[in-house]
Specification:
By secondary structure, the chain is α/β, with parallel strands linked by helices. It folds into two domains: 3-59, 2-Layer Sandwich (Transcription Regulator spoIIAA); 85-270, Rossmann fold, CATH 3.40.50.150. It has nine helices and twelve strands. The protein has helices spanning 10-13, 16-27, 38-44, 88-95, 113-120, 133-145, 158-163, 186-202, 221-235, and strands spanning 3-6, 31-35, 52-56, 61-66, 69-74, 103-107, 125-130, 151-155, 169-174, 204-214, 239-246, 264-270. The strands form three sheets. A seven-stranded mixed sheet has the order 8-7-6-9-10-12-11, sandwiched between helices. It has a three-stranded mixed sheet with strand order 1-2-3, with no helix packed on it. It has a two-stranded antiparallel sheet with strand order 4-5. Helix 5 (113-120) links the parallel strand 6 (103-107) and strand 7 (125-130). Helix 4 (88-95) crosses helix 5. The mean pLDDT is 92.
């Protein structure tokens, strides 16, 4: 199978050749494709490499099975390494709250992981929203692979979508890309989360749920709690934390490396 690799820190990049060599020897891939985040490389003071195949032959798409669900991952065009495995456990947890008749809104849906898990659990309908046409095409392909037809995939900015929304949902998932890749971007990121949560609350049916995530080290759990409290005060709704969520086991949190705890989230009930 083809592999995707990405070096985002100067420290790890020092072991680049060893990592690639070990990956080839241990996993024996058909090919390896290197993904590049130019902004991160600039921050780290690293050479601006181009995205490219660095070993063998790499297919445009690969198929992955996750908890019996099929997903197409676009190694070359997809975000980061193609599929967000750090949310695997959270997809299972969030979808476990699905009840018969539930309508789901999956914002910043990427390849549709959360919404597809919800469809498997019996959701009546899922509306996916992502600004990327590549993501929308992946959602459609993934729903087809799993024989789901009760969905709609929309190519639109999530902020614009919420501004014009006039329908209600039982569960809304907010899983945006990193709003704050640097500390100076934190204030703007908090305002973005406040908008998303407040407007999601307004789009909820009675006793609805919101799953909100941040994948930025600079946005802490306390920051997310403050966003939820602010939204509660602004909307006059009470918010109950049902689940505290974080990255899955294959993205370990090292206590002596605070940035390694980057993905945090909450599943809340709005009453």
């Amino acid at each position: 199978m083809s592999k995707s690799i990405q070096f985002n820190t100067a420290g790890i990049n020092r072991f680049r050749d060893l990592i690639i060599k070990s990956l080839i020897e241990i996993t024996k891939p058909k090919g390896i494709y290197e993904k590049v985040d130019e902004k991160i490389l600039k921050i780290e003071g690293l050479k601006q490499n181009k995205e490219q195949t660095i070993y063998g032959e790499v297919l445009e798409n690969i198929q992955v099975i996750e908890n019996s669900l099929k997903f197409v991952a676009s190694i070359k065009q997809g975000q980061k390494t193609g599929l967000f495995l750090d949310q695997r456990k959270n997809r299972k947890i969030v979808s476990s709250y699905i009840q018969r008749g539930f309508k789901i809104l999956d914002l910043f849906s990427n390849s549709g992981g959360f919404g597809i898990y919800c469809l498997k659990k019996g959701a009546d309908f899922v509306e996916f929203v992502d600004v990327s046409q590549v993501a929308v095409s992946q959602i459609e392909e993934n729903c087809k692979l799993n024989d789901f037809k009760n969905y709609k995939a929309i190519k639109e900015d999530a902020f614009d979508y919420l501004n014009n929304l006039n329908k209600k949902f039982n569960l809304i998932i907010i899983d945006p890309p990193a709003f704050a890749k640097t500390k100076k971007e934190k204030v703007g990121a908090i305002k973005g989360f406040q908008f998303l949560v407040i407007n999601s609350i307004k789009a909820l049916e009675e006793n609805g749920y919101i799953a909100v995530f941040s994948c930025s080290h600079h946005i802490t759990e306390e920051d997310l709690k403050k966003v939820l409290l602010f939204a509660s005060q602004k909307t006059g709704k009470r918010i109950v934390i049902i689940e505290k969520l974080m990255q899955d086991l294959d993205h370990p949190y090292l206590l002596n490396s605070p940035p390694s705890f980057y993905l945090k989230g909450f599943l809340v009930k709005v009453i």
